[in-house]
Each structure stands twice: as structure tokens, then as C-alpha cells.
Design goal:
Elements lengths: L1 H11 L5 H10 L4 H31 L6 H10 L3 H18 L3 H12 L11 H21 L1 H7 L5 H23 L5 H10 L1 H14 L5 H21 L7
Length: about 240
């Protein structure tokens, strides 16, 4: 099975698109080396969502978040579903932060299965990765909370609401997953430069990942799919064995 994966990935590499990267990642979910991390990720996602819903409810009661105009409007509009609505909005950011604890395993398995002839990535120091993911979490939660007025306004224009949500979170998630993968192969400054050069492809991948996070049940495996898909995107960008020319 690993040989089949390697052949299909190498064949797709010259024309790798976002949909191809996502499909290759989904295909690999059934591989033995992915099952353990997938089960762990799904369990962590369930715990994360439940904990997030409890945390949001606690914050609404004890931090006075309900007094914020846009949060109050959301509560008035959604009623008892406001907590779940806020948890749903914030779930991609929190789940991505949690994914930082197993993204190395996903990247290792993906590179071994699809890119065995390339130079393997190097696992990153735990503390530096944790700090980077924590900073992403703060920014992503802040951006989404500040975007709630926009989301509420676009409830009047329903077709535009997913465009805004996927657009905003596509940028956030694309950036984070790309850097998690890229830092295994290059200095953070080089990774940022490469991300800027390929920002539209990375944003499109992030938007696709944001969509997966909104699909019930699929969202539980979304962090695993996202990390594996971004490995494919990264490999497409740098070319065989890190050739950036």
C-alpha cells in the first residue's frame, strides 16, 4: 500500500493542486501507520470541542462576554445555541493548536509513504513549536471573535457568510499548517518568505481545510487531513528534494 501511495503522489506532484493534496491525505487515513494518530486525533478533537463549549459557557457567565455588543446580539439571535455557535466558530483554531502535539507524526508518515526518496524533515523542538502554536491560537481566536460582527451582518446575506468565514480562516489555517510543515525543512524566515511567494495556493489549501472543519464528523479528522495535505502542498512548492528553482 505504501508503494501505491508513493507512486500516486510522485505522479501527481508536477500538477499538484489543492484538491489533489486533500484527496491524497484522505486516502492515507486508512493506512496502518495513520490509524493510531487518527484515533488519537479524533479523541482529542472530541475532548477539545466539549471543553471549548464548556469554556465558552463559563466565559459568557463569568467574564461578561455576553455584555459585548456583538456577542450579545449572537446570543439573542441563537438563544441557547449561542454557546455551540461560538464553539463551532472557534473550534478550528483550538483543534489546530492541539494538532501541534501530533503533527510531526503525521508529517513523518506522509513523507515516508509518498516521498521516500526526498530528504526527510527534522522534528522540531517541542517548546518552540508549542510557543508558535500558542501564538497562533491567540491570534486566531482574537480574529474570529473580532469577526463576529461581520458574521452577524452577513446572516442577512447568507451566501456571503461562508465566503467570509472560509476566507478569514483559510488565511489563518493555511499559514499555521504550512509553517508547521515547512519548519521541518527550513529556517522559519525562509519558510515565511516561501509562504508569501505562494500565498494564494496556501490560502486555498487553508480555505479547504476550514471547510472540512465545518463538516460534522469529518471535522474530527480535519487536523490530520490538514497536516498531511499541507505536506503535499509543501512538496509541490519546493520540488523534488528541496529544489526551489
Amino acid at each position: 500500500m505504501a508503494v501505491e501511495y508513493a507512486v500516486s503522489a510522485v505522479m501527481c506532484r508536477p500538477v499538484m493542486g489543492v484538491s489533489t493534496a486533500i484527496l491524497l491525505a484522505i486516502q492515507q487515513l486508512s493506512a496502518p501507520e495513520f490509524r493510531r494518530v487518527l484515533v488519537r486525533a479524533i479523541g482529542l478533537s472530541v475532548i477539545t470541542f466539549v471543553g471549548l463549549a464548556i469554556g465558552v459557557q463559563w466565559a459568557l457567565v463569568h467574564w461578561g462576554l455576553a455584555a459585548m455588543p456583538w456577542i450579545g446580539t449572537l446570543i439573542q439571535f441563537l438563544g441557547g445555541f449561542a454557546t455551540l455557535g461560538l464553539a463551532w466558530v472557534l473550534f478550528p483554531a483550538v483543534a489546530t493548536f492541539m494538532a501541534g502535539f501530533f503533527v510531526e507524526d503525521i508529517a513523518d508518515a506522509t513523507e515516508a509513504a509518498h516521498y521516500g526518496d526526498d530528504t526527510p524533515g527534522q522534528d522540531q523542538p517541542f517548546f518552540s513549536g508549542l510557543m508558535s502554536s500558542a501564538w497562533f491560537l491567540v491570534v486566531a481566536i482574537g480574529v474570529n471573535i473580532l469577526s463576529i460582527p461581520l458574521y452577524l451582518l452577513l446572516l442577512l446575506f447568507p451566501p456571503l457568510l461562508p465566503v467570509a468565514f472560509y476566507g478569514i480562516n483559510g488565511d489563518l489555517l493555511g499559514r499555521e499548517y504550512f509553517e508547521l510543515v515547512a519548519h521541518r525543512h527550513m529556517h522559519p524566515q525562509d519558510a515565511r518568505a516561501l509562504r508569501h511567494e505562494n500565498r494564494w495556493r496556501i490560502w486555498a489549501t487553508g480555505a479547504a481545510v476550514a471547510f472540512l472543519f465545518t463538516v460534522p464528523f469529518v471535522n474530527l479528522a480535519a487536523p490530520v487531513i490538514a497536516a498531511a495535505a499541507m505536506v503535499h502542498v509543501f512538496k509541490f512548492i519546493i520540488g523534488p528534494d528541496g529544489d526551489l528553482d
